[in-house]
Amino acid sequence: MAPPPDDRLTAQFAFLNEADRLKSVLRATTLCDGSRPENSGEHSWHLALYAMVLADQAGPGVRIDRVIRMLLIHDLVEIDVGDVPIHSKGGAAHASAETQAAEQRAADRIFGLLPPDLGADFRALWDEFEAAETPDAVFAKSLDRVQPVMANLQSGGGTWVTYNVTAEQLETRVGAKVARGAPRLWDWVKARTRVYFG
Question: How would CATH label the architecture of 5-197?
């Protein structure tokens, strides 16, 4: 039995109001002009735009509408967990069991605010992104990794300078994931990183 319309709207707006908190989660990556850190809400919006503009870099079978949906919700768990930069000393924690468990709890809570049908749909999309096994999720992950690279290129090195990132770290932590879903894109971007990594 469906909830009464008022209850459904109450749940939908509870989720939307909670999602607004993503704008307060600061990331290590700066804006392209280097003036300030970007927030996770800005990052998610920018990635959705990346998907629209770079759709021609997607592999066969990738549905850009689904990629955009994934990218708009992929970092909502940071409302509870925060952002762990992959190049920071805590970057290893990014994939730790503890961080993953915290993200699962955050996903339960945040997507649980929605009416059950929407909550299940959003949660399945988030789980798909995290698993990075479908063509849509692989391409979405590629864009998630390449956007900070472009910000670093535009801002004079950005977090690469802050965290003393090496060419090998960039290749293993970023390049491999970008190349998996968008190989031509990584070739183009990597050529521009040589200014910083030789």
Answer: Orthogonal Bundle (1.10)
